[in-house]
Amino acid sequence: MERFFVISGCSGGGKSSLIEALAVRGFAVVREPGRRIVAEELAGDGRALPWVDLEAFARRAIEMATADHEAMLQVKGPIFFDRGLVDALAGLDHLTGATAIPDISRRVRYGQTVFMTPPWPEIYVNDDERRHGLDEGMAEYERLMAFYPKLGYRPVVLPKADIETRIRFILQRVGAY
Questions:
Q1: What sequence ranges are listed for the domain NadR/Ttd14 AAA (predicted)?
Q2: Rounded CA gap, 130 and 110, in Å?
Q3: What are residue 115's phi and psi, to 5 degrees?
Q4: 142: Cα separation from own chain's centroid
Q5: Which residues fall within 8 angstroms of residue 163, CB to CB, at 6 or more apart?
């Protein structure tokens, strides 16, 4: 859907900050499934935490991203997703070595342009929900840059710049500026 835009890329590259800034500007946003899952798991039994069972985490992220997409179908205007289904599918593909493109990726579609936050060591930080290091984030970024085109998406790398510059960059490309 050309009004569903994904912001993906390197962990710690500023995705969540961009999503928050877009929300403040009044745009519909969907927060990252992975962070929501970690928060739920930390409050629960913790079985699907990425550092406990990465495959269970990825499968849960697929379910959540699919439900998020469905829930946004009735919302008008551009919608910005902090990661989404393709990120979860790429993670599961990396874990399991699956080579077939899942049917779900044909049904659950986003706009062709996907905004990618590049690795940015100067702003990278760990927290309770992000325990992996920058090297792991950079490897994930490279996998995502290769995986998105396999599903017909066009990754566009965001500039390493302040949030306002990044927002202008995004909004100009989606025709909302």
A1: 5-166
A2: 25
A3: -85, 125
A4: 14
A5: 14, 17, 18, 21
pLDDT of residue 121: 54
CATH code, domain with 120: 3.40.50.300
Per-residue pLDDT, 93: 86
Q: Return the structure tokens found at 136.
A: 């792991």
Query: What H or E segment, with its residue span, contains residue 40?
Result: helix 33-43
Q: Which domain holds residue 33?
A: 4-174
Number of domains the chain is built from: 1
What is the C-alpha to C-alpha distance for residues 72 and 28, in angstroms, rounded to an integer? Answer: 9
Q: Which range is least confidently modeled, 8-12, 123-127, 168-172?
A: 123-127
